[in-house]
């Protein structure tokens, strides 16, 4: 009995687990058996690997080949194991030395002629290999720039199985990353292009500074979408750790660019209003893929015409909004994806959506039912509500407003103040702070929070809404450079929660 060994990574969500692959060449009729809970794509790898080895010029062993993937109880999904399967068989056959193979993790899909194709989830797989203490990882050449984002591990690129075999034998070298290209600033438009709407612009600045969720209502063509699209331009660049988080999610989604693999600016995701709950939250058969809420992690999720979305889609967002994480349960386990995003909702006030309220032809019941899809528990999680109105002075002769760069400078200063205040807890924005911390460790004077206490006593808002109003008050305080919110900051925060229903 001859055994060969190789290693790969199983990725679930954005977490990876090392998988050991053993190859046993025994007596019997020529055959290949794969064990270890493989899915259909992995079962088919038996034929891919065998053809790739033969077309590379190597001899496939005569006899019964058993390939075991451990841990055996972990479901194995996808074609990422092809390269490691081929290497383990060649190791068992004595065709390649074991020294380098024993220290290297292998990732990649094989074509029938031996080329190594890229797979989804390379970045989280490389991070898992580094965290497990491995010194080297071989990835497809097409994924080299993506895998090269990870420090602390030697990342090599193989264009074909023949290149890997030559490297294992000491007869050739594999490719290395030439550097990490940095993506340019997102083309999201400038805030100066939005004419008028001073209140909505101020609300957008507060939302950017504190990481708050925002609802914009108003007639069509008034600037709701333009404002939402310019929010990423007000946000500071992502930190190094945040960039890797976001890039890992997009790696699992398969949406990374070859030219710009590292995402350094806040993503902007705007699904169509006909999207399904699975596309919004994540899921699918086999590997649970990240949905729109996870692809918007550390960025902006914009739902235009939110009143047209299905009720199930809207209600499914309540848990991600509260916890900043998505847990997708499947038969074989639970996939976890981060989902800490800013939600921007935009809606018309009614189905007919006239330019002026007096021109509305909708029945009162239809008008109430239209925005009735936005349930109370969901609206409780929205920090800022703004009702936008047409402005007579917002025409072609209006003066140009502040640019995104000017507003972003104020936002960055406010975020730095918040990050410094919450440094010992690890929070970066006011929107992340739990309510009990605001009520206990950072309790405001009784006269300052009196308006909130009054609203609670009269039943005008829930305890969750009160916590969110205090968070917004802290953000307004940071924007004006004060150390602690004053009564006017709390009143302004409460005013934001009342404008959406006017």
Automatic annotation (TrEMBL):
Record-linked InterPro entries: AAA+_ATPase, CHLI-like, Mg_chelat-rel, Mg_chelat-rel_C, Mg_chelatse_chII-like_cat_dom, P-loop_NTPase, Ribosomal_Su5_D2-typ_SF, Ribsml_uS5_D2-typ_fold_subgr
Record domain AAA+ ATPase: where: 210-375
Record SMART domains: AAA
UniProt family annotation: Belongs to the Mg-chelatase subunits D/I family. ComM subfamily.
Name under which the protein is recorded: YifB family Mg chelatase-like AAA ATPase
């Amino acid at each position: 009995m001859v055994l060969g060994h190789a290693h790969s990574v199983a990725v679930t969500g954005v977490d990876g687990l090392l998988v050991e692959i053993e190859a046993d060449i025994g007596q019997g009729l020529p055959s290949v058996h794969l064990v270890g809970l493989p899915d259909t794509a992995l079962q088919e790898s038996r034929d891919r690997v065998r053809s790739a080895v033969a077309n590379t010029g190597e001899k496939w062993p005569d006899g019964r080949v058993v390939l075991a993937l451990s841990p055996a109880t972990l479901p194995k999904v996808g074609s990422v194991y092809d390269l490691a399967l081929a290497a383990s068989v060649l190791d068992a056959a004595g065709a390649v030395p074991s020294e380098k193979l024993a220290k290297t993790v292998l990732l990649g899909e094989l074509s029938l002629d031996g080329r190594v194709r890229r797979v989804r989830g390379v970045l989280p797989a490389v991070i898992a290999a580094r965290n497990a203490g491995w010194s080297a990882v071989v990835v497809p050449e097409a994924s080299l720039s993506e895998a090269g984002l990870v420090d602390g591990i030697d990342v090599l690129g193989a264009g074909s199985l023949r290149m890997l075999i030559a490297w294992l034998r000491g007869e050739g070298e594999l490719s290395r990353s030439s550097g990490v290209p940095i993506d340019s600033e997102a083309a999201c438009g400038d805030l100066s292009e939005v004419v008028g709407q001073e209140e909505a612009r101020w609300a957008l600045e507060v939302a950017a500074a504190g990481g708050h969720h925002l609802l914009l209502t108003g007639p069509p063509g008034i600037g709701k979408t333009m404002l939402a699209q310019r929010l990423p331009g007000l946000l500071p660049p992502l930190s190094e750790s945040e960039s890797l988080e976001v890039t890992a999610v997009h790696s699992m989604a398969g949406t990374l660019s070859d030219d710009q693999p590292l995402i350094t600016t806040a993503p902007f995701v705007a699904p169509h209003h006909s999207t399904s709950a699975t596309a919004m939250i994540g899921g699918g058969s086999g590997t649970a893929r990240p949905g729109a809420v996870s692809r918007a992690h550390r960025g902006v999720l914009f739902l235009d015409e939110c009143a047209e979305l299905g009720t199930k889609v809207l209600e499914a967002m309540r848990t991600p909004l509260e916890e900043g994480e998505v847990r997708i349960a499947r038969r074989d386990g639970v996939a976890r994806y981060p989902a800490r995003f800013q939600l921007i909702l935009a809606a018309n006030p009614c189905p007919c959506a006239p330019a002026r309220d007096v021109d509305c032809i909708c029945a009162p019941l239809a008008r109430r039912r239209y925005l009735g899809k936005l349930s109370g528990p969901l609206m409780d999680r929205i920090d800022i509500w703004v009702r936008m109105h047409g402005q007579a002075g917002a025409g072609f002769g209006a003066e140009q407003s502040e640019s995104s760069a000017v507003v972003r400078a104020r936002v960055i200063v406010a975020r730095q103040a918040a990050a410094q205040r919450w440094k010992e807890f690890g929070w970066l924005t006011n929107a992340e702070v739990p309510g009990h911390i605001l009520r206990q460790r950072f309790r405001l004077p009784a006269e300052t929070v009196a308006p909130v206490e009054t609203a609670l006593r009269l039943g005008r808002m829930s305890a969750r809404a009160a916590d969110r109003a205090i968070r917004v008050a802290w953000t307004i305080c940071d924007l004006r450079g004060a150390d602690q919110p004053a009564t006017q900051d709390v009143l302004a925060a409460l005013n934001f929660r009342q404008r959406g229903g006017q």
